[in-house]
Amino acid sequence: MRARPHHLIDIVTQIGGGAAFTPHAYGHAVHLVAAEVMADPDLTVTFVVGADDICEPCIHLVEGLEGAHCDDVLRQFDPPISKQDYNDDLDRRLLEFLGLCEGQALTFRDYLVLIRERFSGIEEICTHPGEDLTSRRNKLNRGLETFGV
Ligand code: SF4
After folding, report:
1. Which of 8, 41, 55, 81 meets the CB 3.0–4.6 Å disulfide criterion with 109?
2. 83: Cβ below 6 Å to ligand 1?
3. Is-contact 17 142, C-beta < 8 A?
4. pLDDT (tens digit, 9 = 90+) per residue, 37-94?
5. Contact criterion met (CB below 8 Å) for 94 and 5
6. Residue 106 Cα, ligand 1 centroid: separation in angstroms?
7. CA dist list (Å): 50 to 6, 12, 16, 78
8. C-alpha 80 to ligand 1 mean position (Å)
């Protein structure tokens, strides 16, 4: 599986928050990837900064001169910013925080162990605009516990 590091953290956080996974209007594969990692936490994940298996079926993944990219826009920023740029920056900062490199592969479970080891302060990076830091940290913590980490 190819995954943006923050996409998997978002999934674990959603699990910790108890929210159900349902197909999204964008057509992306969050619900499918969530089901995959819950069914087999030992599957191997290759970390990417760019389109991943979640993006693959998304209506916002478009082909460009430099390959597939996200054409969605984050309108909660003023001025709005490209989701591709926002995500790339977020994922680079997460990889650095966790001591990982783009292209590195780990099992999903080992990724969770790494997040647990470096848990303190990770919410400062992975909390999205408009979200509450404490709530984000608590839900991620519960999500890790769900996997026994
Ligand atoms: S990052 Fe963009 S292409 Fe990927 S799932 Fe989100 S909206 Fe879709």
Report:
1. 41
2. yes
3. yes
4. 999 999 999 999 999 999 999 999 999 888 899 999 999 899 999 999 999 999 999 9
5. yes
6. 22
7. 11, 20, 25, 24
8. 16
Decide: 61 in ligand 1 pocket, CB within 6 A: yes
Domain of 55, in residue numbers: 2-146
The domain total for the chain is 1
Average pLDDT for residues 104-126, to the nearest whole number?
97
- The one-letter amino acid at 67: G
Distance CA 30, CA 53 (A): 9
Beta pairing, strands 44-47 & 2-3:
parallel
Predicted TM-score of the model (pTM): 0.96
Please identify, by atom number, the ligand 1 atom nearest to the C-alpha of residue 51.
Answer: 4
Alpha carbons 28 and 16: distance in angstroms, whole number? 21
Residue nearest to atom 6 of ligand 1 (CA): 55
